[in-house]
Amino acid sequence: GQCSNHCPVGAIVEHDETQKVWDALSNPDLFPVVQIAPAVRVSIGEAFGYPIGTNLTGKLISSLKKLGFKGVFDTNMGADMTIMEEGNEFVHRFKKKDNMPLITSCCPAWVDFLEKFHSDMLDNFSTCKSPHEIIGVLSKTYYAKKHNVDPSKIFMVSIMPCTAKKYEIHRSEEMFASGHQDIDISLTTRELARMIKQSGIDFKNIEDQKADSILGAYSGAGTIFGATGGVMEAALRTAYHVITGKELSKVEFKQVRGLKGIKEANIDIDGTTVRVAIAHGLANVDHLLKEIEKTKAEGKPSPYDFVEVMACEGGCVGGGGQPYGVTDELRKKRAAGLYKDDESSKVRCSHLNPAVIQVYKEFVGEPLGPQAHKLFHNKYTKRKTYKK
Ligand code: SF4
User: Fold this and answer.
1) Is 316 a catalytic residue?
2) Which atom of ligand 1 has the smallest separation from the CA of 163?
3) Could you confirm whether the keyword Ribosomal protein appears in this record (predicted)?
4) Of these four, 106, 183, 200, 225, which has the most CB atoms within 10 Å of its CB?
5) Which residue ranges form the domains of the chain, and what is each CATH number?
6) What is the ipTM of this complex?
């Protein structure tokens, strides 16, 4: 129901939608495809007795193939696409000092909160869609065309650490940008764990497999999206390139990592300072926003240029759709699994991901161009709240 869809910490159990996915998997008229979010790979193991934070991407992909999905993609690739759009959006606004700070918008619980309680800041929001929406729309356009599949038959399931994603998939008409709904069903990590168990798959002994081309290849920047500060760090890696035309010799921005409720940093990009802030957990978010609103109301310049916001403490690793019993220790270990994945990635910046380059070259054109705007961007509206 409405409550469970909006509860960012999952205190209310999600509305179980696994039956709809079983039905799609056994419907011969459909072409079921699936994608996994960054934070799911480092938490699913908890349902199967693995040490916390173990990265199980390969086993997850094999299990999804075994369940019968005809295309298994990675939301991390969508995160790289989000960064291409949002990194360019940031640089564009930063140069013009237009609607500063830019605020990230890939967390739907946060989008809902802003539309209801801070609607004076709607213009500060990045218009870019969240990573799973981008993979969804690409599966029903680019992928469908390349693989000669009727897009109306594609049934896209996303596996998310999140209950709010169940609401995001039909939150506005932009979620139907290709004429089809970008995402048909959004399941939580817990729902997928149940499906794997019900199917009798021997998760521990299944061999690792890779996600399918071309919506499965990701950079280290894409994978850290699941931890607080990860979107900011990924965006900075690409923004550096957009601003300077050069590549970073050291890609890590450790100042934006960790579990402090509000993190602030001044990032030096070749002599230009970018002032960033990161808030996670809605109480911290509210605090930070009020500070920004206050300077706006007083007509003063914004104290920040770029702000990352996640409704859940720790970011999506601590999401409401994750295995129960989240503590800071657990959040740290899950995040460490993602940072390790980044460190061991050959490509660590979104704009250097060959799959991203190919999708722009063959299909989208330029970041922020007309096709990108049509498929990858959102609008926001002030929404009502009811008080008695
Ligand atoms: Fe969902 Fe992540 Fe936002 Fe939590 S932080 S509500 S898991 S998108």
Assistant:
1) yes
2) 1
3) no
4) 225
5) 2-376 (3.40.50.1780)
6) 0.99
